[in-house]
Design goal:
The chain contains eleven helices and 17 strands. With about 350 residues, it is α/β, with parallel strands linked by helices. The chain has two domains: about 190 residues, Quinone Oxidoreductase, Chain A, domain 1 (Alpha-Beta Complex), CATH 3.90.180; about 130 residues, 3-Layer(aba) Sandwich (Rossmann fold). Strand 11, helix 6 and strand 12 form a beta-alpha-beta unit.
Length: about 350
């Protein structure tokens, strides 16, 4: 029997999110049913709700930074039990047959991963709905464990902002002795600073905003460079092995490329639009530098990241909101008025709209 669920949805690209009732699919033998406690608010939720990337399916229930407790498990589920604290990130399925899936990199599935919301289930073709809701049904292969050492509220953004920054740092083998720079201090950037520092790197923040030094150092930065100051930029020429670029809007990469050392790599994790202005190829060729990209992370590395966070006491800096304030939160996010991630208390769904 399908589950009738309370949540919040975008009825169209131009309509504010509002209370919405919808049906979840019937649980399958390999499914975990999760009562959602908290859901982080990602900038991509705004893009999708407003159809800024195209292809949005309405009504849309956003949310892919989900923390909750298991309320039921299918007969084939062995690694989770009722009462477990668990998480669900950006994906709820993949083909599980291709080379990428075989390496535990389901986000690069050649058939395309099934996203937690604004997608269609691979088996029944019904729409997927996200975490701005009271309950979700997910294959056990796409559920992760949340340690009791983690504050579940602050763990929610780890499932997108956390893994998006963790995965490239791990892939490029950042560790003791690495010189790392992070561009941008937002939901992604603040996690990049925390992870790079915990991995043993010497960490620099690039920012366009004066006055962020104290905050950046609190989050793990050893140095802060004002990227609008030519003298400060010149002083870090050829300094960095790795740059994590978290900026979500088009910006000039050329000044940052000159700060990479020989064989250095700049990795884009925030930008999906074309790179503008054009990259000067000499800056790449003459230092054997690379521009690369990285998307979220696979389920195994997401669990690895969560375990690392539990061991090192790392979590996101969050501001809790009631779901009734989600539209105001979107407007504040567009003004960068949050440190550093909104998290919805799903218990607020029970309040009168």
């Amino acid at each position: 029997m399908a589950l009738t669920i309370h949540g919040y949805a975008a009825p169209s690209a131009t309509t504010p999110l509002a209370a919405h009732r919808f049906e979840r699919r019937d649980p399958r033998p390999d499914d975990v049913v999760i009562d959602i406690l908290y859901c982080g608010v990602c900038h991509s939720d705004i893009h999708q709700a407003r159809n800024e990337w195209g292809g949005s399916i309405y009504p849309m229930v956003p949310g892919h930074e989900i923390i909750g407790k298991v309320s039921a498990v299918g007969a084939q589920v062995g690694k989770f039990k009722v009462g477990d604290m668990v998480g669900v990130g950006c994906m709820v399925d993949s083909c599980q047959q291709c080379a990428a899936c075989g390496e535990g990199l389901e986000q690069y599935c050649v058939e395309g991963a099934t996203w937690t919301y604004n997608d269609k289930d691979r088996r029944d073709k019904l729409p997927t709905f996200g975490g701005y809701s009271e309950r979700i049904v997910v294959s056990d292969k796409f559920v992760v464990s949340i340690s009791d050492k983690l504050d579940p509220k602050a763990a929610a953004p780890l499932l997108c902002a956390g893994i998006t920054t963790w995965s490239p740092l791990r892939h490029w083998k950042i560790g003791k002795g690495s010189k790392v720079a992070v561009i941008g201090l937002g939901g992604l950037g603040h996690m990049g600073l925390k992870f790079a520092k915990a991995m043993g790197a010497d960490v620099t923040l690039f920012t366009r905003s004066p006055g962020k030094e104290t905050e950046a150092r609190r989050l793990g930065a050893d140095h802060v460079v004002l990227s609008t100051d030519p003298a400060q930029m010149a002083a870090v020429t050829r300094q960095f092995d790795f740059i994590l670029d978290t900026v979500p809007s088009p910006h000039d990469l050329n000044p940052y490329l000159l700060t990479l050392s020989l064989n250095g790599t700049l990795v884009l994790v925030g930008l999906l639009e074309p790179i503008e202005p054009a990259v000067q190829s000499a800056a790449v060729i003459l230092g054997r530098r690379s521009i690369a990209g990285s998307a979220i992370g696979g389920i195994a590395e997401t669990q690895e990241m969560l375990d690392f966070c539990a061991e090192h006491g790392i979590a996101s800096d969050v501001e809790m909101i009631d779901i009734q304030n989600i539209n105001h939160a979107y407007e504040r996010m567009l003004k960068s008025d949050v440190r550093y991630r909104f998290v919805i208390d799903i218990a607020s769904l029970k309040k009168a709209a």
